[in-house]
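Retro notes - structure team

What went well: the batch runner handled both jobs without manual restarts.
What didn't: labels got mixed up in the shared folder, which is why I'm recording both outputs here explicitly, each with its sequence directly above its tokens.

Job 1
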Amino acid sequence: MPYSSVDVAERPRKRKATPIQYVRVAGRLVLPVIALFLSLAVAFLLHDIPVSDSALPILSWFDHLPKDAQLAWDPRWWPLTWAHLLLPLSFFVIHLTNRAYGPEYALGQVLVTWTLIATAALWILEALGPAFTGSPIPPRQTTLAFLSGIVFGELVAIFIFDRTRGTRWWTAPLNGSLFGALFYTLIFYGLSLGLIGEPWLPRVCLDFALNAVGALALLAPYYLMRPLIKPLPGFGGK
């Protein structure tokens, strides 16, 4: 049945955002953006520092593999660095934002953070140029593959987290991290190694396994932070 003129007039209209609302949104994004920026910055600074057997004793298990199998499956040949172990933190901080404010804020967190990272990188290269003596910069193909993988993985994590909110507190963060890590590893290694004919599926399996372990470990701090970071009205989950 069509609306009458009275019905149409009485239907609520979407209000335009006020300057105060924009300020409130920006204020809510400050800490999430800082947290994501720092987690990614630390991972970058440690991307060329290998993980030793003493720090991760399970790596010595790969010594029992045949030599040919070691070349394909032993992550020490990558080499495995601290950045691989710290990367799940980026999904973790995005989950906290998604939990508290919803997917729109989490998306804003990702976009603003990567804009700041790109701006900072361009400024450093422009200002310091050849004098830049910080951590070695990865090759261009590796950098582009990483950016494509991690940004898409973070977007997938936002979507999965929001879609799997429910009565069990661990469902959304665990699923978000697992699916985000899966897409990240597939895209990153597919573009950085697969396109040049290098074996990349073993790295996908191993790196995804590391991210899965990280996702499980980060459920503990997520659980402890739940009373401090509560969802806004309208968002499900505990």
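Job 2
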Amino acid sequence: MAVRGKRQILQRQLDARSKIWPDLNPDEVWRLENEGWVAMPRLMPLMMNIMDEMSGKGYPVSRTYLELWSRLREEQFLTLNRPEEMAFHAGFEGQRALRTWKDRMLRLGELGFISLKDGPLGPISYAVVYNPYYVIKRAQLEGKVSERKWQALIIRANELSIFDPDDVGDDGKLIPKEEEQKSTAQKKPLKRPVKAKPTSKSG
């Protein structure tokens, strides 16, 4: 969407908000200008619902996943050196908090949402977080996602021009991107047309 179009939509939303909440102080709402935010897919709530369904009743993993995501930067890699804090932030308290958090982390790994590596803190020392659209698409191909939720996901993704699910083929593998065009250095130089020399008139 063009920048101008986005600005127009934003202005319409602001106008609507001012009519519904005429006394609202704009400083009271959270904005992107504030520090401490993380980028997140718009369909994260639905994907969290799906991953809990995939994990099985009684073993929800979405809060653990969301807590992980809140710590991510663009490299999608984490050093898990504060497990007690991460367990608490994910909602686990008491003597079994850390054990429950580790169980949910292992389940996220088994489901394919993350990859865990051994290190100084044991088998859960490092994590890489995969594209959740890819993970859910592969699970859907294996019949592990309910049709109702899958349809809701792809319909809403289409409305938002999100095409990540299309990156995974029916075989579960990423579809290779088109090969980039060869650099101009590898191309043969275009030949310029040779201009005819003007003929001299005889005296």
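One thing worth noting from job 2: Helices lie at 3-20, 44-55, 62-69, 83-89, 97-111, 132-141, 147-159.
We'll revisit the folder naming next retro.
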